[in-house]
Each structure stands twice: as structure tokens, then as C-alpha cells.
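hiii so um. not sure if this is the right channel but i have a protein structure encoded as C-alpha cells and i wanna go backwards to a sequence. like what aa goes where. can anyone help
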């Protein structure tokens, strides 16, 4: 069923004859200027509650646009889909409200405003909907539009501030077309893609996908395609670009400001004459419909109508796009004046970061946050230069490779798993340090070291586990979660060189007191050289009850931030209290 009104036919005749159709400007941002509207702010600017609580104010704004000479008045229903999602906000000021009543009132107020201005027969009414209509909830709203329009129908439906073209968008348009009313679509778009009220660009390059969508909208039966809710300087060049894809009538109605925390901020210095000058430029680029969005008032519309009255639609293409010119200048600057790279104190590149080329082979323990935490310390401090190093629990070989990168004479990597040992060897080969790396499979518990090392690093598995849990693992069920760490500390006196340093990662859920006791027993001393915060991952969340038991019986702890459990990871630097030359000599005999 095709619904057609004389008012919309007049709009179509203007477009066909080459004359410019003039839309109204913003209703929402004009409302606070009316004395009858009190306390409208935030989302309440966008119409639904104004219709509910102060329809006379909306009527006054519509009337001013009709008197300014616009051809189309848009109903103050843009925020209706949002109001449907949270009607309680409307009830705060207007009491229980039926959305259909608001929609009908919006059409009736716009009709009365045109009549009051003597424009009842030549000022069309567009029923405004936001892009929120392209949602699952919006589909039900569309289904009920026919019933809502039974008493009084608009002359067309204008879907505004759309952004993405989803598969659902085509379905939404199809259902809107089933109402029999002309459908106009308006998108927040510029030459560079999705665009916001501040001129920000969302998303990456998308080529001509929007142009192809425009062509599809035309084939579906959409009546016009417009661009709105973007800064005026981002409009330039958009219509010629669209014209390559579609023969639909094209239009623009940009913003002249935006809503900030300090209230509405308008573009200073853009009055009626200045807006008319911009409208002329859009007309020369092919605009057949011109209006205004947020911040555009009746004085802007009246000035634009006067200057556009006797103009012909153009087909000019901008000789240069200011944004593209800016990009070209940036590229030229990048080529002629290279930026200084970000480096550390040693002159090593931080962007991009000189990170080892690591591949985690199937079945190998994936590096954890603790491993990356220790890697960062090794990288920053250049640990291992000209020294013999040991990586305990090497996994993929991440720390092994970094020690070699730092200039280690030799790095020996050990791990219980053969797959990890092979992975570490492959990592050393991939990163060009295989000539200074050896690796072997070692069970830490029965291990008898054959030599001493000047640097030892270890980021070991630390997880309190309920011993009654069933499961298959090479590690015994560890009530306190610190068996591997404790065993390594006991091994340090016989594997750490006299002047050597060991770097061990310890989580706060293990406790400090037991570590201090072990260090004292082994005649070692330790200090914290760094710490970091690590949220519980899924394995820790699964053992949360056991972690709480450990914390209840020891000085172990973790932090609770909002609803998230967070551990503290400490990087311990451990050395001998006294030189061990005598023991080293004995071990070498």
C-alpha cells in the first residue's frame, strides 16, 4: 500500500524540477531556549519527555521553523526508541506514558505548527526515528507503526543518525517500506567513513562499501539519502562521492555544536549568513535537500532558504579534500622529518618493542603474566651480560632468549617437559642465539646441579590446590602452592655462584614468612626489586576456596578490588649472605 499526500508530492516536485528542498533545524537544542521548558538536560533534550511534559514548547519551536520557510518539519520523536528502553525516566516528569500516544502527539503538534504558520498545505511532516530503530526492540516498534498511523499519518518517515550498515539494516528498511510511506535515511558519514559530532572517525577504511549500500537502498525503494549529525567541514566532498553510486536525491544537515558537560556549546561565529554560505557550497556539490541538525536554528534555516531559492543543483567536486591534504602533509612530514624513536636508557627501541620471536608449541605451558613480568625486568636491566645463566622452568624459552639477547656467555634452560625443552631450543634457533643456549629435561626434585651459575631466573608454577581434588598432573597436589619454589630455594646454595644473583617470581598468595625462613636456613638474603598486580585467571578462580584456606593459616594474601580478586607478584633478588668460594672449590673437585 503506497500512501501519498499532496504535501509530499510537492516536495517531490521541487526535487524533480531542480529546486532545493529545505528541512527544518534542530528541535531538541532549541527547546532549552523556551521559557516554558524547565530542567531539560542530557537525554531529555532529545524530545520524548518534551512531548510528554511540555508539548506547547515543542509546538513553538516547530512553528518558528515553519515560519522560516522550511518544506519539511521533523517530529520531535527522535528519542522515542530510547524512551521505549527506559520509560521510567519519562515517568519522573510526566507520569506513566504510552509511547504510541507520544508518537501521535508528535505528529499532531507538527501539523498544528504548520497550520499556525499558514503552511498546512505545503509543509510536510516527517516522522523522525533514530538509528536505535535498527535493533531487535525496534522491529516490534516498526510492526506497530501502521496501527499508530491509523488516526493521523505523517508524510514520510525519516530515519536519522544511522551509522553502521548491518545485515539487519536492510531488513529494517524493508519493514519500514511496508508501511507504504516514503522512507528517507540519514547517516553519520563523511568521505572517511563513520563520523561523530566532534569530527572523530570510527573504524578503519571500508572502501566503497557504503556507496554500494546506497545503491542497494535505491533499488529497495528508499526515497532519499542524507548525511547528518557531523561537523559542517566534514560534509564537503561527500555528495559527489555518493553520486558515483546512486541516483537517489541527496541531502545534508550537519551540526553546529555539541553537548558537553558544561552544557550546549555552539560553533561560535556561525550565524545565518555564514550558514547560508556553507549551504551554497553543498548545493554546488549536489545537495538537493538542505537542513540542519543540533545547534542549527530557525535563523540559519531562513538564511539558507533565501540563498538557495533560485539556485540550480551542481555537480562540483572539491579540488582537494582538507582531510586528505592534512594526511598528505603528515606523510610528507613523516618522510622529510623522521620522528625520534622511543628508546630506553641503553638506546634500545621501545616502539616497536624488541621482543623475542616466540612460538608456543602445542602442549607447552603458555607464558603467563608472571613470565612477561620477569621478562620486562631482564630487558630493562640488561641482566645476564657476560655471565653464565640458568633458566629454571624455561617453557617456551622466552627468558632464555632474552638473557642471550642481553649478552650472556651461555644460557642453560631446564624444564620437566621434553616438549618445552624442544620449544626452548627452537626459540633460541629462531632468534639467532642457539650457539649460546643449551637445554635439557630436568625434574627439579631429584636434580643434582653439575655447575654453578652467575644468574638464575625462575618463574615457577605456584597454585594452592585442594589435595582431595582428582586430576592427572606431573605435579603433586600442593596444599600451600609453594613446593616448587621452596625446593628451588633449597637448591640455590649449591647452584648459585659465589657472587651470583637469582631472580625468583613469588605470588602474594604464598606468603612471605615461609620464604624468609627458607632464605635464612640456606644462608641467603633476598629483597624485592619489583612488583606487579595480576587479576585471578580462571585456574586461580577455580582454586579460590583453597587459596582462602592458605591465607587463613598463613600470612598469604590477595587484594579485592570491586568484584575482582587481584594478586601481587613480587620479583625477588636473592644472593648469598657470604661468598661461597670454599664450597664452589669443593664442588669442582
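sure thing!! here u go:
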Amino acid at each position: 500500500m503506497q500512501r501519498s499526500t499532496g504535501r509530499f508530492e510537492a516536495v517531490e516536485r521541487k526535487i524533480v524540477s531542480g529546486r532545493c528542498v529545505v528541512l527544518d533545524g534542530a528541535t531538541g537544542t532549541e527547546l532549552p531556549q523556551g521559557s516554558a521548558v524547565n530542567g531539560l538536560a542530557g537525554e531529555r533534550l532529545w524530545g520524548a519527555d518534551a512531548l510528554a511534559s511540555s508539548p506547547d514548547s515543542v509546538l513553538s519551536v516547530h512553528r518558528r521553523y515553519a515560519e522560516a520557510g522550511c518544506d519539511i518539519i521533523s517530529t520531535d520523536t527522535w528519542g522515542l526508541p530510547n524512551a521505549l528502553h527506559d520509560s521510567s525516566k519519562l515517568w519522573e516528569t510526566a507520569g506513566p506514558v504510552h509511547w504510541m500516544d507520544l508518537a501521535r502527539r508528535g505528529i499532531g503538534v507538527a501539523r498544528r505548527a504548520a497550520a499556525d504558520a499558514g503552511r498546512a498545505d505545503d509543509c510536510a511532516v516527517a516522522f523522525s526515528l533514530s538509528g536505535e530503530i535498527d535493533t531487535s526492540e525496534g522491529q516490534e516498534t516498526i510492526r506497530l507503526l501502521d496501527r499508530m498511523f491509523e488516526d493521523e499519518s505523517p508524510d514520510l518517515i525519516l530515519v536519522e543518525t544511522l551509522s553502521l550498515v548491518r545485515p539487519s539494516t536492510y531488513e529494517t528498511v524493508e519493514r519500514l517500506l511496508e508501511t507504504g510511506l516514503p522512507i528517507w535515511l540519514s547517516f553519520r558519514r563523511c568521505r572517511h567513513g563513520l563520523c561523530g559530532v566532534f569530527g572523530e572517525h570510527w573504524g578503519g577504511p571500508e572502501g566503497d562499501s557504503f556507496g554500494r549500500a546506497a545503491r542497494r537502498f535505491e533499488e529497495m525503494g528508499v526515497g532519499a539519502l542524507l548525511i547528518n549529525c557531523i561537523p559542517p567541514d566534514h560534509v564537503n566532498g561527500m555528495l559527489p562521492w555518493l553520486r558515483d553510486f546512486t541516483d537517489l536525491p541527496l541531502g545534508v544537515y550537519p551540526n553546529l555544536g555539541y553537548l558537553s558537560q558544561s552544557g550546549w556549546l555552539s560553533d561560535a561565529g556561525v550565524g545565518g549568513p555564514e550558514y547560508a554560505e556553507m549551504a551554497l557550497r553543498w548545493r554546488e556539490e549536489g545537495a538537493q535537500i538542505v537542513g540542519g541538525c543540533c545547534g542549527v536554528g530557525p535563523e540559519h534555516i531562513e538564511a539558507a532558504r533565501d540563498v538557495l531559492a533560485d539556485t540550480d543543483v551542481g555537480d562540483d567536486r572539491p579540488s582537494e579534500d582538507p582531510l586528505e591534504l592534512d594526511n598528505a602533509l603528515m606523510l610528507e612530514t613523516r618522510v622529510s622529518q623522521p620522528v625520534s624513536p622511543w628508546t630506553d636508557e641503553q638506546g634500545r627501541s621501545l616502539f616497536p618493542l624488541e621482543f623475542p620471536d616466540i612460538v608456543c608449541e602445542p602442549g607447552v605451558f603458555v607464558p603467563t603474566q608472571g613470565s612477561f613480568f620477569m621478562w620486562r625486568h631482564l630487558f630493562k636491566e640488561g641482566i645476564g651480560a657476560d655471565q653464565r645463566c640458568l633458566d629454571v622452568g624455561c617453557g617456551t624459552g622466552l627468558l632464555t632468549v632474552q638473557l642471550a639477547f642481553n649478552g650472556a656467555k651461555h644460557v642453560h634452560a631446564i624444564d620437566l617437559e621434553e616438549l618445552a625443552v624442544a620449544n626452548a631450543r627452537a626459540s633460541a634457533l629462531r632468534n639467532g642465539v642457539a650457539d649460546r643456549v643449551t637445554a635439557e629435561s630436568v625434574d627439579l626434585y631429584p636434580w643434582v646441579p653439575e655447575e654453578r651459575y652467575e644468574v638464575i631466573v625462575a618463574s615457577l608454577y605456584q597454585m594452592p590446590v585442594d589435595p582431595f581434588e582428582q586430576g592427572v598432573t606431573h605435579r603433586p597436589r600442593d596444599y600451600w602452592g609453594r613446593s616448587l619454589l621452596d625446593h628451588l630455594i633449597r637448591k640455590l646454595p649449591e647452584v648459585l655462584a659465589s657472587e651470583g644473583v637469582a631472580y625468583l617470581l613469588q605470588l602474594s598468595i604464598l606468603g612471605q614468612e615461609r620464604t624468609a625462613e627458607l632464605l635464612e636456613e640456606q644462608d641467603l638474603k633476598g629483597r624485592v626489586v619489583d612488583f606487579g598486580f595480576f587479576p585471578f585467571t580462571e585456574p586461580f578462580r577455580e582454586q579460590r576456596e583453597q587459596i582462602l584456606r592458605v591465607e587463613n593459616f598463613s600470612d598469604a594474601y590477595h587484594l579485592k578490588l570491586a568484584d575482582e580478586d587481584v594478586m601481587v607478584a613480587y620479583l625477588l633478588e636473592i644472593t648469598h649472605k657470604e661468598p661461597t668460594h670454599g664450597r664452589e672449590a669443593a664442588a669442582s673437585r
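oh and The chain has two domains: 6-325, 369-588.
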